Amino acid sequence: xxxxxxxxxxxDVIYQLPDLSSQKKxxxxxxxxxxxxxxxNPSLHTALIGDYSTGKSTFINALLxxxxxxxxxxxxxxxSAFISYHDKEGIRILAETADGxxxxxxxxxxxxxxxxxxxxxxxxxxKDAIAYLSATNEFAxxxxxxxxxxxSIEKLRRISLIDTPGVxxxxxxxxxxxxxxxxxxQKYADATIILFQAAQVYTGSFSRFLDENxxxxxxxxxxxxxxxxxxxxxRRISLIDYVRFxxxxxxxxKNPPIFSCCAKAxxxxxxxxxxxxxxxxFEQLREELTAYMGECRKKIIHRQLTYLMETLASEVxxxxxxxxxxxxxxxAVLEEGSILNKAGxxxxxxxxxxxxxxxxxxxxxxxxxxxxxQRCGQxxxxxxxxxxxxxxx
Length: 393
Prior knowledge:
The chain is α/β, with parallel strands linked by helices. It is about 60% helix and about 15% strand. It has eleven helices and nine strands. The protein is elongated. The termini are close together.
């Protein structure tokens, strides 16, 4: 079976469940639509998330092979930036506001309209404009996201990078930034690259954030330790082993793919031995990382389908359980009436008048449960048959 056939199976089950609430039905259909769009789109939307000051912008620049994002412009990103490849020279910047309006900043008339809307003055330089709009906290409520198209490394042609707000515990805007990052993960991301700073690899706050917001993505995530140049060479392997141990123990991830680098040194390309080492090491990281992310795409879609089918199978079981409970309640009412009748608390006329209708309701509910159980059994078998094929494939 292909993705379209799995989606058809899930959709059929959703519309056959008689007691599924409209809210749950809408949630399932939205999830299906999201998976369908991801399957049809050849790009892998990869969110980069990291604790405060892990060097996400520097790492993205090193991946792209150019300084697109301003480094150390601000303590953290405030508005998510979606960076994708195009084969033309120059940078295209699209700002989408909270009300859904889109402004292509390369067009002077669009730039003026956005300036008037936000009552600001956007820098003329494209890189300065990206930094100004993405790193200024006051715009975080007004700008939904920034789309950037740039000519970069050919291997990134099918990978769209998403620079998310940093997780900055204790800061006034921390909760808002975490919520923005969570929104990106839920609505847009297919996969994640999770960054740790070498000198502070595994903070408790960042661990909690991953647990609460990115758990569904962790099995497909790539983990990168940045700023490795600050760690003595003799300690680097043990540091990687420590991160691997924490990921396995804390999240149950088997053999997590862990990379390490010094992105800044890779960008600077210093001619000395150390500079050449870090540049070559980053070239290898980019090669391995892009290959890994490319392989993840099919696996990620299958994982999303699996999760959806397992959740739906639980809903099928819940419908039968609820039907059984309704039948038991009606049976209890009949038994109560029978007790009252035997005790002489009710006359035959009262008993007949009150409980004939109740008995009919019981028979109807019993028949309904029999039909529901048969139908749900078929739906359950259908879902698990699809799941079995999906897991084998």
